[in-house]
Design goal:
It is a single chain. The protein is of the alpha/beta class. It has two domains: 3-180 and 297-383, Aminopeptidase (3-Layer(aba) Sandwich), CATH 3.40.630; 183-295, 2-Layer Sandwich (Alpha-Beta Plaits). The chain contains twelve helices and 16 strands. Strands 1-2-4-3-5-16-6-15 form an eight-stranded mixed sheet, sandwiched between helices. Strands 10-12-8-13 form a four-stranded antiparallel sheet, covered by helices on one side. A two-stranded antiparallel sheet has the order 7-14. A hairpin with a 3-residue loop joins β1 and β2. α10 (302-314) crosses α12 (369-383). It is elongated and about 80 Å long. The model is unreliable at 1-7 (pLDDT under 50). The structure holds zinc ion (2 copies). The site of one zinc ion has 4 residues, from loops. One zinc ion binds next to loops.
Length: 386
């Protein structure tokens, strides 16, 4: 206690730390430098640190007092395969790799809270700090669960935040129930008998079948899903052919479906299979469907949402109930499928022209670092009130 730790906390340069991570982004499951830097800061502050979980994941714990109550807080660490176009002095030093979702900011805010709490210790119980790899499409949260995350954090509620460019600085929003969508991916391969473009009657035309498939799938949500439900399906890629005078033998389509309700999700997959097979049969081509449900919906527990909003208010933020969920997906969903908790959006909006998340010019707003630190700190001090 005392002077040394105080100076550690007071002198920690949060913005400098964030910008260093930003300049050295790492893709999913490759967050070795990031994890090492996090581990060093946590160990210097006296936390007990377990690293190497699911490769690069970290669980650090901090105990104060004697209560067996617990809370867990989570941040994601990975960057995106995007070439940064911000022109910032600390922009990515790695071509094609960019912290375009602000996970460098998430890490910094959770680390700042860990440092602050290790100094103040105004709580009674144990806090687990989860630093997770591979949120961007690679299900790092699931990998950490498979590598013993739940045993390490115990029976506890879990909280996480995401910076939110649409929300003003100084606000935090969340809602009970679904907050982020379930995300599915489909890949469809159509195979037929190609041939001469001037003799279509001797072929089975996969190009036309692919076009018909895309049109038919774009009616799936509007015609097969209850209008009162929320869902979206997008065909994002159609590929076939190489020449103006050859009818190709194969075509492929890719796309994504998003939903919030398990029964709706089942129905989308079943209807997609039925529609694709129906179009293929009519066109006389073979269809192969690869349908992958990669992230479930992120479902907030109502009590935990109340806790999250109360903590935001205590942290001096404007606490808001979000009107609707986002159709983006989030692998914190895997943790909330196993533990109660809440996921919240932390406002970082500078103006109406702000580039969105995953845009090459996206820019994490360092002004919100103290907001995230204060929210995490309040969650701990309320949940584990001394
Ligand atoms: Zn992202
Ligand atoms: Zn993200």
């Amino acid at each position: 206690m005392g002077g040394h730790e105080q100076s550690t906390v007071a002198s920690w340069d949060a913005i400098g730390f964030r910008r260093d991570l930003h300049a050295h982004p790492e893709l999913a499951f490759d967050e070795h430098r990031t994890a090492a830097r996090i581990g060093d800061v946590l160990a210097a502050a006296g936390l007990s640190v377990e690293s190497g979980i699911a490769g690069t994941g970290i669980v650090a714990s901090l105990t104060a007092g004697s209560s067996d109550r617990r809370i867990a807080l989570r941040a994601d660490m990975d960057a995106l395969p995007i070439t940064e176009a911000t022109g910032l002095p600390y922009q990515s030093t790695k071509p094609g790799v960019f912290h375009g979702c602000g996970h460098d900011g998430h890490v910094t805010m959770l680390l700042g809270a860990a440092l602050h709490l290790s100094h103040t210790r105004r709580f009674d119980g144990t806090v687990s700090f989860i630093f997770q790899p591979a949120e961007e499409g690679r299900a790092g949260a699931k990998a950490m669960i498979e590598d013993g995350l739940l045993r390490r954090i115990g029976d506890t509620r879990v909280f996480a935040l995401h910076n939110w460019p649409q929300l003003p600085v100084g606000t935090l929003a969340t809602k009970a129930g679904p907050i982020m969508a379930a995300a599915d991916r489909f890949d469809i391969t159509l195979s037929g008998r190609g041939g001469h473009a001037a003799e279509p009657h001797l072929t089975t035309d996969v190009v036309l079948a692919a076009a018909e498939t895309a049109v038919a799938l774009s009616t799936l949500v509007s015609r097969r899903i209850d209008p009162a439900q929320m869902a979206v399906l997008s065909v994002t890629r159609i590929e076939s052919g190489a020449s103006h005078n050859v009818l190709p033998g194969t075509a492929s389509l890719t796309g994504t479906a998003r939903s919030f309700d398990a029964a709706i999700r089942d129905r989308i997959e079943a209807e997609l299979r039925r529609i694709v097979q129906g179009v293929a049969t009519a066109a006389g081509v073979e269809a192969e469907i690869d349908y992958v449900r990669y992230y479930p919906a992120t479902i907030n527990d109502a009590d935990s949402v109340a806790t999250a909003l109360a903590a935001a208010q205590a942290a001096g933020l404007t606490a808001m109930t979000a009107e609707r969920p986002s159709f983006a997906a989030e692998d914190f969903a895997f943790i909330l499928a196993e533990r109660r908790g809440a996921y919240a959006w932390l406002g970082q909006k500078r103006g109406d022209d702000d580039p969105p998340l995953h845009h090459p010019a996206y820019d994490f707003n360092d002004a919100i670092i103290p907001h995230g630190i204060a929210w995490f700190t309040e969650l701990v001090e309320q949940e584990l009130a001394a």
